[in-house]
């Protein structure tokens, strides 16, 4: 049998790589006077980022970040400083920062719904996306332009709608979600550009285009799954060009008449988006993407990690526990009743879900932001479930400290994220991780753009068997 292999170098000669970049820029989006598109803004960061990486390699390649230990090898590499992640940094004491900005700073500085003329006051996920991709706060016009750009990309292809409609209702929503995301790679601009021989230095451009397309379509994918499984929403995923992403998403789900939930969804997506790179979903997107898999395949893999009970599934487990506790202590319990129930949980060998964090040693700033939102909404303050969550945040830490088996006795984001959703009527727990999946794309996908902007290599750590480890330790 005769086979013919055509090298990619030969393919490149038949391609004008920069034509793709020009086409992508031309297809880019709504423009405003004296402002930039997101693609133009990201382009400006490329030279400085590449120079920064080259300098670090040249000056510090041999600098130790701390010795790797057997504990790192056997303990899931926890705390081992060996991964580059641009969007956010997670510090045990100071919490999460996004290009140096804390969540309260982001809430204050990033353009909000009100700024672009929509009801509500919370920062826009589109504003957070701009910050994560460029390191800069967008102007109101830039945030509005990006919002309209995403709306223009939001329509689902017919084949994806048909695929989702074939799923049995009994198939878990996260399985449906990751499958549909993977299938969207049928239209991947990165895959097409790679096959056409686009230069490595330009990989980031089609990666950005795919990432924007995917972020824009995730709400419609999630909403169609929600309609098919739970029968809520209109099943049409209509997009109103006058609305922002979170507002359209909430309308697709059938809750557009609840202004409080619309604004909560903006905050929810913004604070859940990025959480450094070491968590399972973010790390998976980076790992799979390092093989030059397109963003759809990389993020589909990330969603499968997010679906695990030790990661994104935790929020629904927390809410289940809260509702069980509410049944036990009633709608207006005393502090002592709550404390006694906490001790009962701990003495039975169970953990208090929603408390503790792999890195943080202070209250999770995401929990603080979501709880603060509840303080601004009378309908949430009337909710026994929300009130119980907030009281637990004060009563549980002393109990957990006295119990002595946790390094961080404070609530994490999962402790409070589900109670407002439940209060507003979005009470299908199996769907909560899908909401998390819509959000996490805002952090994981920008990092893929950075990975390709900087030309990061395929991730390939060295593994050892226990025999090999023992032999090494004897030397």
Write the topology of this structure:
Layout (H helix, E strand, L loop, with lengths): L7 H6 L3 H10 L11 H23 L9 H5 L13 E4 L3 E4 L2 E2 H7 L15 H10 L5 H13 L5 H9 L6 H11 L5 H8 L7 H27 L14 H8 L6 H14 L7 H10 L5 H12 L7 H16 L5 H13 L17 H11 L2 H4 L2 H20 L10 H10 L8 H22 L12 H9 L1
Antiparallel strand pairs: 1-2, 2-3
Helix pairs in contact: 6-13, 6-22, 8-11, 9-11, 9-15, 10-11, 11-12, 11-22, 12-13, 13-18, 13-22, 14-15, 14-22, 15-22, 16-21, 17-20, 18-21, 20-21
What is the name of the CATH class of the domain at 148-310 and 427-454? Mainly Alpha
Query: Which structural category fits the helices and strands?
Result: mainly alpha
Strand segment tally: 3
Largest sheet: 3 strands, antiparallel
Anisotropy-based shape = globular
Give me the strand/helix succession. Answer: HHHHEEEHHHHHHHHHHHHHHHHHHH
Average pLDDT: 90
Low-confidence stretches: 1-33
Question: How would you describe this protein?
Answer:
It comes from Malassezia globosa (strain ATCC MYA-4612 / CBS 7966) (Dandruff-associated fungus). Its main location: mitochondrion. The chain is mainly α and 475 residues long. Among the domains are: 148-310 and 427-454, Orthogonal Bundle (Citrate Synthase, domain 1), CATH 1.10.580; 312-424, Cytochrome p450-Terp, domain 2 (Orthogonal Bundle). The protein contains 23 helices and three strands. Strand 1 (88-91) and strand 2 (95-98) form a beta hairpin. Helix 6 packs parallel to helix 22, helix 9 (173-183) runs antiparallel to helix 11 (204-230) and helix 20 (384-403) runs antiparallel to helix 21 (414-423).
């Amino acid at each position: 049998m005769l086979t013919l292999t055509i090298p990619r170098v030969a393919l490149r000669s038949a391609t004008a790589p920069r034509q793709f970049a020009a086409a992508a820029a031309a297809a880019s989006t709504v423009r405003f006077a004296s402002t930039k598109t997101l693609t133009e803004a990201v382009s400006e960061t490329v030279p400085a980022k590449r120079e920064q990486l080259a300098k670090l390699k040249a000056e510090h390649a041999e600098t130790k970040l701390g010795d790797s230990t057997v504990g790192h090898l056997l303990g899931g590499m926890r705390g081992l400083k060996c991964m580059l992640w641009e969007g956010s940094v997670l510090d045990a004491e100071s919490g999460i920062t996004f290009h140096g900005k804390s969540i309260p700073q982001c809430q204050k500085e990033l353009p909000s719904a009100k700024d672009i003329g929509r009801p509500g006051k919370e920062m826009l996920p589109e504003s957070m996306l701009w910050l994560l991709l460029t390191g800069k706060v967008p102007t109101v016009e830039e945030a509005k332009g990006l919002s309209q750009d995403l709306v223009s990309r939001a329509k689902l292809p017919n084949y994806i709608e048909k695929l989702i409609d074939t799923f049995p209702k009994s198939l878990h929503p996260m399985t449906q979600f990751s499958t549909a995301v993977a299938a969207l790679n049928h239209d991947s601009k990165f895959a097409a550009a790679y096959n056409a021989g686009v230069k490595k230095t330009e990989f980031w451009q089609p990666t950005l285009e795919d990432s924007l397309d995917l972020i824009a379509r995730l709400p419609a994918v999630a909403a169609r799954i929600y309609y098919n499984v739970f029968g809520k929403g209109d099943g049409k995923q209509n997009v109103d060009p006058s609305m922002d992403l979170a507002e359209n998403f909430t309308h697709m789900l059938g809750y557009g008449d609840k202004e409080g939930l619309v604004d909560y969804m903006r905050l929810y997506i913004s604070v859940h988006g990025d959480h450094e790179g070491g968590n399972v979903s973010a790390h998976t997107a980076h790992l799979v993407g390092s093989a030059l898999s397109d963003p759809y395949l990389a993020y589909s893999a990330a969603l499968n990690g997010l679906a695990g009970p030790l990661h994104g599934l935790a929020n629904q487990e927390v809410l289940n526990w809260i509702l069980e506790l509410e049944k036990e202590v009633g709608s207006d319990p005393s502090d002592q009743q709550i404390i006694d129930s906490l001790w009962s949980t701990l003495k039975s060998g169970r953990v208090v879900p929603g408390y503790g964090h792999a890195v943080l040693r202070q209250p999770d700033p995401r929990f603080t932001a979501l709880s603060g939102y509840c303080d601004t909404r009378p309908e949430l303050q009337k909710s026994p479930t929300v009130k119980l969550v907030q009281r637990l945040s004060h009563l549980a830490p002393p109990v957990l400290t006295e119990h002595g088996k946790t390094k961080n006795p404070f609530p994490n984001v999962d402790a409070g994220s589900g109670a407002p959703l439940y209060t507003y009527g979005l009470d299908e727990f199996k769907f909560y991780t899908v909401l998390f999946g819509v959000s996490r794309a805002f952090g994981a996908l920008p990092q893929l753009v950075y990975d390709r902007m900087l030309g990061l290599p395929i991730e390939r750590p060295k593994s050892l068997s226990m025999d090999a480890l023992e032999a090494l330790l004897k030397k």
